[in-house]
Amino acid sequence: MKVENVLNCSFSSWYSVFKDVTTKSLVIPLPQEFLEYLHSDGLVLPEQSVAASSNENADEDNIIGEEIDWSTEDISTPVAEPPKFPEFENLVKKSIKKLGGCVFPKLNWSAPRDAAWISFDKTLKCICPNDIYLLLKSSDFITRDITQPFALCEDDENYKNDVQVKYELVLRKWREFNPSNEFRCFVKNGSLIGICQRHHTMYCSFIGQHKDEIVTDIQAFFLHVIQGNFSDKSYVFDVYRRDQGKVLLIDFNPFGEVTDGLLFSWEELLGNERLNGEQEVPAFRYIEKSSGVQPNPYTTYAMPRDFVDLATGEDPQKLIDFLNLKIQQQDSDDESTPEINLSGSFR
Ligand SMILES: Nc1ncnc2c1ncn2[C@@H]1O[C@H](COP(=O)(O)OP(=O)(O)O)[C@@H](O)[C@H]1O
Ligand SMILES: [Mg+2]
Predict the structure, then answer these.
(1) Domain spans in the chain, listed from the N-terminal domain onward
(2) Burial class (CB in 10 A: 0-12, 13-18, 19+), 320
(3) What is the CA radius of gyration of the chain?
(4) Listed residue (41, 47, 39, 52) closest to 81, CA to CA
């Protein structure tokens, strides 16, 4: 995989060619100050956004604890200056409006999928600039886009360091995708060699029941829409099959280890063996049994499950265990026994 292959997958390199078969999107060039803000440590949201969102949400009747003194006189640690990007922010607001009020954000290559846990509804749905800044600033995938987009490319290091990337914020109209209808397709030397479930940690009986139609639809979409129109011979594209015969393009990704092979290994994808034996049709892989479900790779980016369950009250037994533990702790404190038995408290 070369720098050129990665650049060909940058959103604005392909969007104009495929805009009729993908979700409506707007591209806003990132100003240098905003890039520096993304690079910087810490999470201070830009001034205008904080003001805007706190005004929108202000509900004085709901303020609890009237005695709080907000004066800053006693604060000894200096608070970082909130950055300001008024022009950029105006463009973002206008674009959100043009796209119907709800958007999915990403940079040239990646969406901040690893940061979804931080948002109010655990999705990447954004309705104001503040939502977008929070996701971008919290995501390692975004940091990788801006610090080392060519890390796995085989070009010369000096050349890689000299490539000037025009960074952009991509806002896409928000769509409610059903994850079981998303597929990843692998194209090698101009041929579609493999298709698999995009969300490979879930079992969906629908896929097995409709596998022939799924493969036929994706093959037809590849032959009529994609083949010969993308700038490379080897690449990976993601699609959404919304209904029989209706396929939508989601994204292009480089053909190489920087892209998750999901149910294929890169060893097999790059190797010389045909993935589907002697058959002409592409290999199709999906989770065939509910017992084949694999752990969700994004859980490592989220908060500890116990913390989430306790905070949301989703697992009442866990809350009961936690309260029992507290009572035990108090009892043992009363008896001045410092030992707390933690074993078996959380399942
Ligand atoms: N316009 C959209 N609205 C809602 N969800 C989306 C949209 N576009 C993509 N997604 C979801 O986000 C996932 C990742 O999108 P993608 O553009 O491929 O980002 P990345 O390249 O970082 O994986 C998709 O698999 C899909 O589930
Ligand atoms: Mg992608």
Answers:
(1) 24-50+84-173, 179-296, 303-347
(2) exposed
(3) 24
(4) 47
Ligand 1 neighbours by CB, cut-off 6 Å: 23, 104, 106, 110-111, 113, 172-175, 177, 182, 198, 238, 250-251
For residues 241-272, b (16+ Cβ closer than 10 Å) or e, as one string?
A: beeeeebbbbbbbbbbebbebbbbeeebbeee
Listed in sequence order, the DSSP H helices in the chain are 3-8, 11-18, 32-39, 47-57, 86-98, 129-138, 140-147, 157-162, 205-209, 211-221, 266-270, 305-312, 316-334
- Ligand 1 atom at minimal distance to the Cα of residue 253: 21
Q: Which ligand is nearest to the CA of 180?
A: 1
Query: Which pLDDT tens digit goes with each residue over 111-163?
Result: 999 999 998 899 999 999 999 999 999 999 999 999 999 999 999 999 999 99
What gap in Å lies between CA 289 and CA 175, rounded to an integer? 28
Burial class (CB in 10 A: 0-12, 13-18, 19+), 20: exposed
